[in-house]
Design the sequence.
C-alpha cells in the first residue's frame, strides 16, 4: 500500500495520536458520557479519514465484494461524527450530565442520527454503483437514482450540524466573555474559550466542505463538470480534522498546561532581574544553594528552586538591610505617582540592592534597623502574594 500526498493517512495519524493521548482518561472515566463522547469524536473522524483514502477504499471493496461500500461507510461515520459533536456540546454546556434538559436534547440528536444513517444505508442499497470511484464518487453518481438522494441527505445533515456547532460555540464564547468581563479569566475559562474558537474554525471549514460538495453536485445536475471544485476539498477536510483534535484537546489539557507550564514560565521570566542580582551578589560559586536544577526539571521545579534560593538569599542579607533605605525609596515612588503595591516593591528592591552592595564591603547594619526591615518584608508578603515578582519588576 503506497501513501500519496492526497491521502488522509497523515490526518488520521494526528487524530489517532490525540485519541491515544486521551485513552487513559477513557479508561479511568469510561462511565462518564462526556468522556466517551470526547473519545468518540476523535475516533470517528480518524476512521473517516482512513476509509476515505484510496488504498483503503480499494481494500474494502475487494474484501467485501461490494463496490463503493467505503463511500457509504464514510458517509455514515461522518453523520455520526456530526451527531457526536452536538452531543458533546450539550454535555459541556449543560453543566451536569444528568440534567434532564441535556438528556432530552441528547436523545433527540441520537434518534435523528440513527434515522439519517438508516436512510443512507437504504438509499445506497436501492441505488446502483457498479464502477469503483475512490476520488469522485459524489460527482460521478450525482445523477444516479437513490444515490443522489443519499448524497443530498448526507451533505444537508453535515451542513446543518456544522452550522449548529458554529452557533453554539460562538454563543458560548460570548457568554464566557460576558461572565468574565469584570473579573480575570481562570485557566479553565481561557482554555475553554480557545478550544471553542478552534471548534468554530473547524465547523466553518465543514460548512465550506459541504457547500463546495453541494455546488459540485448541483453543477453535475445542470450538465456541467465541476469536478475540480470537488477535488479541491482535500485541504479543507484535512484542516478540519486537525482543528477538531486541537479544539477537543485544548479544554481538556489547557488548564494543566497553563498552571504547570505557562504560568511558571511567565514567573521565571519576571523573576529574571532579581535572579540575576542573586547570582551576582549571592553565595559563592559552588554553594549548594545555587546548584542548577536537573536538565529534565519542569518549569514548576525550576520556579520553586529560584524562589527558594531568593528567599534564602534574603535571609542572608537580613543583617545588612536598612529600613531607612526602604522607607526613602518607598516615599520617592509614591511621590512619582506609583501605586501602593508598586511603591512597596520599589522600596524593598532598593533595600535589598543596597544590602547586597553593603554586604560585600561594610559591616552589618544595626540589629534594630534590620529587624524593622524584615518586618516590612513580612508585611509586604502578607499583602502581595507575588512579592518576589513585584520586586523583580521594580529592579527592571
Sequence:
Amino acid at each position: 500500500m503506497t501513501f500519496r500526498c492526497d491521502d488522509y493517512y497523515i490526518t488520521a495519524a494526528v487524530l489517532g495520536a490525540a485519541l491515544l493521548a486521551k485513552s487513559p482518561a477513557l479508561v479511568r472515566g469510561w462511565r462518564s458520557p462526556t468522556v466517551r463522547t470526547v473519545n468518540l469524536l476523535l475516533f470517528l473522524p480518524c476512521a473517516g479519514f482512513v476509509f476515505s483514502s484510496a488504498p483503503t477504499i480499494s481494500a474494502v471493496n475487494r474484501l467485501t465484494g461490494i463496490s463503493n461500500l467505503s463511500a457509504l461507510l464514510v458517509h455514515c461515520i461522518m453523520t455520526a461524527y456530526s451527531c457526536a459533536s452536538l452531543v458533546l456540546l450539550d454535555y459541556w454546556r449543560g453543566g451536569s450530565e444528568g440534567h434532564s434538559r441535556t438528556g432530552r436534547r441528547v436523545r433527540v440528536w441520537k434518534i435523528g442520527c440513527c434515522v439519517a444513517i438508516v436512510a443512507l444505508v437504504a438509499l445506497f442499497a436501492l441505488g446502483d454503483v457498479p464502477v469503483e470511484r475512490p476520488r469522485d464518487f459524489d460527482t460521478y453518481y450525482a445523477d444516479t437514482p437513490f444515490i443522489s438522494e443519499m448524497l443530498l441527505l448526507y451533505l444537508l445533515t453535515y451542513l446543518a450540524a456544522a452550522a449548529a456547532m458554529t452557533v453554539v460555540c460562538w454563543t458560548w464564547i460570548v457568554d464566557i466573555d460576558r461572565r468574565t468581563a469584570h473579573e480575570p479569566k481562570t485557566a479553565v475559562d481561557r482554555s475553554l474559550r480557545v478550544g471553542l474558537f478552534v471548534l468554530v474554525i473547524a465547523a466553518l471549514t465543514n460548512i465550506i466542505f459541504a457547500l463546495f460538495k453541494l455546488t459540485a453536485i448541483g453543477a453535475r445536475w445542470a450538465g456541467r463538470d465541476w469536478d475540480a471544485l470537488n477535488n479541491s476539498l482535500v485541504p479543507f477536510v484535512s484542516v478540519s480534522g486537525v482543528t477538531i483534535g486541537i479544539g477537543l484537546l485544548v479544554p481538556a489539557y489547557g488548564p494543566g498546561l497553563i498552571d504547570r507550564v505557562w504560568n511558571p514560565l511567565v514567573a521565571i521570566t519576571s523573576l529574571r532581574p532579581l535572579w540575576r542580582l542573586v547570582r551576582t551578589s549571592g553565595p559563592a560559586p559552588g554553594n549548594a544553594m545555587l546548584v542548577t536544577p536537573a536538565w529534565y526539571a519542569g518549569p514548576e521545579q525550576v520556579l520553586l528552586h529560584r524562589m527558594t534560593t531568593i528567599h534564602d538569599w534574603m535571609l542572608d542579607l537580613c543583617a545588612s538591610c536598612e529600613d531607612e533605605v526602604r522607607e526613602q525609596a518607598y516615599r520617592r515612588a509614591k511621590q512619582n505617582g506609583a501605586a501602593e503595591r508598586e511603591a512597596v516593591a520599589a522600596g524593598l528592591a532598593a533595600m535589598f540592592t543596597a544590602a547586597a552592595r553593603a554586604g560585600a564591603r561594610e559591616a552589618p547594619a544595626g540589629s534594630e534597623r534590620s529587624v524593622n526591615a524584615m518586618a516590612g518584608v513580612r508585611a509586604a508578603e502578607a499583602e502581595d502574594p507575588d512579592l518576589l515578582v513585584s520586586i523583580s519588576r521594580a529592579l527592571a
